[in-house]
């Protein structure tokens, strides 16, 4: 498969929500989906940065149909208020893209460790609150695309210390949050299937793409050495943000994309290249872990899904 952004089909009449739409992969995803005619709701934690990004997209796509909405995934009240504002708009695709990586330990406004709280719990809450807004009545299934990372393969869900209160390692916490993304995406697909809902859930990873992601950790810890190393790596090794957005664009728009799948770049070390279907880690397919994480996430966020628990063999 050598799928490119030129293969994104006509999106006219569709509404797509992108979290973290103002930077990196979210911005490129927004640009290509808007170029093909969808209304894109740019969910950003800063509306100022969101409007700047919308201007950037409009320079390329003058008739882009964009709306910037505040949605801070580190604040459940902000997530609820965003979902309330969307209550009457059928959403064809929700792209859970926003994220932070390898930052020093901090907490969200609700007291969750930030990487677990923003990358995983914020998106669990958002998806649950938008469930009834998904366009599932007729036609193509609604899609929920959750952006993970290849690093999920070294992740483990530490149920005894989910929030890194006893021991915190910034990379372990990131890997845990990204494994949680894949476990969530697969469990959501199983629940859609069990409910017979006209919706699909898939996970993606972008390989290694040159974005702001790599600089947040060094910025916050003040590590000039790590900042310099990241700059070098991003220049020499990373692919562009445009390329990194392709697995997301494929999962969100390609007619052939399938619920329960995991898509990522198929080139060198799975860090670059055109998107393809891949296998995720063995742990990510563990249904017991997925169910337990689902229950814990519902309890922590206070957002309960109106979806039945999968019974017996329902493979995503
Ligand atoms: N780039 C890569 O190589 C790579 C590799 C693997 C996985 N990923 C994943 O790709 C996704 C996108 O990252 P990126 O590379 O595009 O990084 P990026 O350029 O840093 O963009 C991250 C986006 O997330 C937003 N965000 C951060 N905290 C938020 C919060 N509390 N609420 C709402 N939005 C928040 C950021 O907003 P602000 O601009 O306001 O901070 C920004 O829009 C992430 O999930 C990341 O884990 C990226």
UniProtKB/TrEMBL annotation:
Domain of life of the organism encoding this protein: Archaea
Is Acyltransferase among the key words of this record?
A: no
Is RNA-binding a UniProt keyword of this protein? no
| GO MF annotation list | oxidoreductase activity
Keywords, A to Z? Oxidoreductase
- Cite the Pfam families for this sequence: adh_short
**Name recorded for this polypeptide:** Short-chain dehydrogenase/reductase SDR
Natural source organism: Natrinema pallidum DSM 3751
Name the lineage.
Archaea, Methanobacteriati, Methanobacteriota, Stenosarchaea group, Halobacteria
């Amino acid at each position: 498969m050598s799928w490119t952004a030129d293969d994104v089909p006509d999106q006219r009449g569709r509404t797509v929500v992108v979290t973290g739409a103002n930077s990196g992969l979210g911005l490129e995803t927004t640009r290509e989906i808007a170029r093909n005619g969808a209304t894109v709701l740019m969910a950003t934690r800063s509306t100022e940065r969101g409007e700047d990004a919308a201007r950037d997209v409009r320079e390329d796509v003058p008739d882009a149909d964009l709306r910037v909405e505040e949605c801070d995934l580190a604040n459940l009240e902000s997530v609820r208020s965003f979902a309330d504002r969307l209550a009457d708009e059928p959403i064809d695709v929700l792209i859970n893209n926003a994220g932070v990586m390898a930052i020093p330990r901090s907490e969200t406004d609700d007291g969750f460790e930030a990487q677990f709280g923003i990358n995983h719990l914020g998106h669990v809450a958002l998806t649950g609150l938008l469930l009834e807004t998904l366009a599932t009545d007729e036609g193509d299934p609604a899609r929920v695309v959750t952006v993970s990372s290849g690093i999920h393969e070294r992740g483990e869900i530490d149920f005894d210390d989910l929030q890194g209160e006893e021991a915190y390692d910034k990379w372990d916490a990131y890997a845990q949050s990204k494994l949680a993304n894949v476990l969530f995406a697969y469990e959501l697909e199983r629940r859609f299937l069990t409910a017979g809902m006209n919706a699909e859930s898939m996970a993606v990873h972008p390989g290694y793409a040159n974005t702001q992601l790599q600089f947040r950790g060094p910025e916050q810890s003040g590590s000039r050495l790590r900042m310099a190393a990241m700059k070098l790596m991003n220049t020499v090794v990373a692919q562009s943000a445009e390329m990194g957005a392709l697995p997301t664009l494929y999962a969100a728009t390609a007619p052939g994309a399938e619920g329960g799948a995991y898509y990522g770049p198929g080139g060198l070390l799975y860090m670059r290249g055109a998107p393809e279907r891949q296998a995720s880690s063995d742990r990510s397919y563990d249904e017991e872990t997925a169910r337990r994480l689902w229950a814990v996430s519902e309890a922590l966020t206070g957002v309960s899904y109106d979806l039945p628990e999968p019974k017996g063999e329902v493979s995503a």
